[in-house]
C-alpha cells in the first residue's frame, strides 16, 4: 500500500476507545494510562510507515501493540538487571548486592511492625541507632558509632558538627571528585566549614599542615583518594603523623576513608587498602565510610570514632534530616553481623565473595554457560577467554582481578547492536563492548541466570 494511504488508515483515538478490548481495560486501569498506551501504539505504527518498515497492518495489530505497551508500563522502572560487566561494585547498577540474610531481614522489618524506636526490654521509646551501634563498635574497635544516609551525608555531618564557621585543613592532593558529583570541596562548603588547601597535588608535608594551623582551625581532614592514584614523585603525611599533630594542638583528626574496608585485602594477595580498624587503632578521632562499597551492605554512611565527637553529632539537628530508614538498618545489621567472623563475611557477603573468588572457580562456570549458549544458538560463536574484572565503586583503582569471560561473535549483528538488544531485554543484560567484541564477565553473573541468558540469545 502507498505510504499516504497507510497513514490515512491509522485509526483515530475516539474510534479505538470504542473497541471492546479497550473498554475492558478501562474497567481496571486509569484512563490516562490507557489513552497514553493507545497513542504510543499509533505513534509506533506511524513511525514504521514513515520509515517504510511495513506495507500493511490491521486494526488488531494496533490493539495488540496497545496491550503490550500497557503491560510494559505496569512493569517497575527500577528493576533487576544481569551484570555481565565484571565490575563488582558498579555504582550505576546499584553497587553492592545484599546477602540472603540481609534481604530476609529487610523483608521481615518492612512487611511487619517492628521495634525501630521501641526498647523491648524497658517497654519504652528507644533509639533507631541502637540496633547497629554495638555491632559497629565491636567490628571496628571504635568507642562510638552513628549511621546516616550515605557517606556524603556522613562527611557533611561531621564537618558541620566539628568545623562550622571554622577551617578544615586538607591536602591539595586529596580534593577529589568521586563520581555522582560528590566533590569534597563542595560538600565542605555546604557544611559551613571553610577549606584550607595545603601542599601541592603530588606532595604534602607535615609542616604544610602545621604552618596553617591557627585559632580558627576546626579539624585536620584526610580523604582517602579511592578512585585514582598519583604515581611517581609523591609525598603524603602519614596518619600517625597527622594524629600526633592533632593531639599536640588539640584539633580533631577526621578521615573520610570512602570504601570502608573491614577486611585486610593484602592477606588475599590484593593491594593494601586501609581498613577502618587500622585508622581507629592509630588514633583518628572520627572515620567515615560507605555502607554499599567494600563493606557489601546497603547505601549508608557510617561514622565511627571517639565518643565525645560522635555524641555531638547525635545531637546535631542535621542528623534528623540525614537519618537512615528501617529497611537500611535491617540490611546493615544483617551485613555487619558477618564481620564478627571474617571467614563467614567472605563467604556470605556477595561483594566480598565476588572480589575474592578465584579465577579457577569462574573457569568452570564460564564453560557451563558456554555450553548452554551453544546448545541453543547456532547463529553466534561463543568462546571462553581470560580477562580482568574490576572492583569498581572507586575502590582499588589499579587492581585487576584475573577472570574468565565469554566473547560473543556474530555475522548477523555488530557488537554495538548486540549490546543494545541485550540491554533492552526484559531482564536487561549489561555487557562490555571492547575491541569490537561483546564480552560477558562470569564473575558478576549468577548461575541461576545462565538459562535466561542462553534463552535471550536464542530469540535474536
Ligand atoms: C564513595 C566515596 C564517598 C561518597 O560516598 P557515598 O556513600 O556514595 O555517599 C565519599 N568519599 C570517598 C572517599 C568515597 O570514596
From TrEMBL:
InterPro entries in the record, alphabetically?
A: PyrdxlP-dep_Trfase (IPR015424), PyrdxlP-dep_Trfase_major (IPR015421), SelA-like (IPR018319), SelA_trans (IPR004534), SelA_trans_N_dom (IPR025862)
Pathway it acts in?
Answer: Aminoacyl-tRNA biosynthesis; selenocysteinyl-tRNA(Sec) biosynthesis; selenocysteinyl-tRNA(Sec) from L-seryl-tRNA(Sec) (bacterial route): step 1/1
Localisation: Cytoplasm
One GO location term (cellular component): cytoplasm
UniProt keyword Protein biosynthesis, yes or no = yes
Broad class of where this protein is predominantly found: cytoplasm
UniProt keywords (A-Z) are: Cytoplasm, Protein biosynthesis, Pyridoxal phosphate, Selenium, Transferase
Which PANTHER family does the record match to this protein? L-SERYL-TRNA(SEC) SELENIUM TRANSFERASE (PTHR32328:SF0)
* Name the record gives this protein: L-seryl-tRNA(Sec) selenium transferase
| Source organism | Clostridium carboxidivorans P7
Upper taxonomic lineage: Bacteria, Bacillati, Bacillota, Clostridia, Eubacteriales
Gene that codes for this? selA
Amino acid at each position: 500500500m502507498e505510504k499516504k494511504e497507510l497513514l490515512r488508515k491509522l485509526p483515530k483515538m475516539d474510534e479505538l476507545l470504542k473497541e471492546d478490548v479497550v473498554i475492558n481495560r478501562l474497567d481496571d486501569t486509569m484512563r490516562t494510562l490507557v489513552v497514553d498506551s493507545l497513542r504510543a501504539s499509533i505513534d509506533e505504527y506511524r513511525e514504521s510507515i514513515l520509515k517504510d518498515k511495513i506495507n500493511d497492518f490491521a486494526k488488531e495489530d494496533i490493539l495488540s501493540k496497545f496491550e503490550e505497551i500497557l503491560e510494559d508500563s505496569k512493569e517497575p522502572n527500577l528493576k533487576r538487571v544481569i551484570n555481565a560487566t565484571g565490575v563488582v561494585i558498579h555504582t550505576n547498577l546499584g553497587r553492592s548486592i545484599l546477602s540472603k540474610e540481609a534481604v530476609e531481614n529487610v523483608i521481615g522489618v518492612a512487611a511487619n511492625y517492628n521495634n525501630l524506636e521501641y526498647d523491648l526490654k524497658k517497654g519504652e521509646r528507644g533509639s533507631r541507632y541502637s540496633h547497629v551501634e554495638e555491632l559497629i563498635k565491636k567490628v571496628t574497635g571504635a568507642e562510638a558509632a552513628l549511621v546516616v544516609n550515605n557517606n556524603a551525608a556522613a562527611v557533611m555531618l561531621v564537618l558541620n558538627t566539628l568545623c562550622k564557621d571554622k577551617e578544615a585543613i586538607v591536602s591539595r592532593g586529596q580534593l577529589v571528585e568521586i563520581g555522582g558529583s560528590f566533590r569534597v570541596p563542595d560538600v565542605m562548603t555546604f557544611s559551613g566549614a571553610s577549606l584550607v588547601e595545603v601542599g601541592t597535588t603530588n606532595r604534602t608535608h607535615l609542616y604544610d599542615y602545621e604552618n596553617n594551623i591557627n585559632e580558627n582551625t576546626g579539624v585536620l581532614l584526610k580523604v582517602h583518594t579511592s578512585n585514582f592514584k598519583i604515581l611517581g614523585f609523591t609525598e603524603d603525611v602519614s596518619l600517625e603523623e597527622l594524629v600526633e599533630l592533632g593531639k599536640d594542638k588539640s584539633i580533631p583528626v577526621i578521615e573520610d576513608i570512602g570504601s570502608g574496608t573491614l577486611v585486610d585485602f593484602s592477606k588475599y594477595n590484593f593491594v593494601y587498602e586501609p581498613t577502618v580498624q587500622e585508622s581507629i587503632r592509630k588514633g583518628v578521632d572520627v572515620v567515615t565510610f560507605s555502607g554499599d562499597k567494600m563493606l557489601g551492605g546497603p547505601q549508608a554512611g557510617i561514622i565511627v570514632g571517639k565518643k565525645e565527637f560522635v555524641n555531638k553529632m547525635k545531637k546535631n539537628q542535621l542528623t534528623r534530616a540525614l537519618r537512615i530508614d528501617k529497611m537500611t538498618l535491617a540490611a546493615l545489621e544483617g551485613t555487619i553481623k558477618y564481620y564478627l567472623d571474617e571467614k563467614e563475611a567472605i563467604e556470605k557477603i556477595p561483594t566480598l565473595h565476588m572480589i575474592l573468588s578465584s579465577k579457577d572457580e569462574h573457569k568452570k562456570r564460564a564453560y557451563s554457560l558456554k555450553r548452554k549458549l551453544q546448545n541453543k544458538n547456532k547463529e553466534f560463536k561463543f568462546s571462553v577467554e581470560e580477562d580482568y574484572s574490576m572492583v569498581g565503586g572507586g575502590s582499588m583503582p589499579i587492581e585487576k582481578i584475573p577472570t574468565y569471560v565469554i566473547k560473543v561473535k556474530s555475522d548477523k549483528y555488530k557488537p554495538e547492536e548486540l549490546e543494545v538488544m541485550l540491554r533492552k531485554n526484559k531482564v536487561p543484560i549489561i555487557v562490555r563492548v571492547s575491541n569490537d567484541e561483546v564480552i560477558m564477565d562470569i564473575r558478576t553473573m549468577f548461575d541461576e541466570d545462565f538459562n535466561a541468558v542462553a534463552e535471550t540469545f536464542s530469540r535474536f
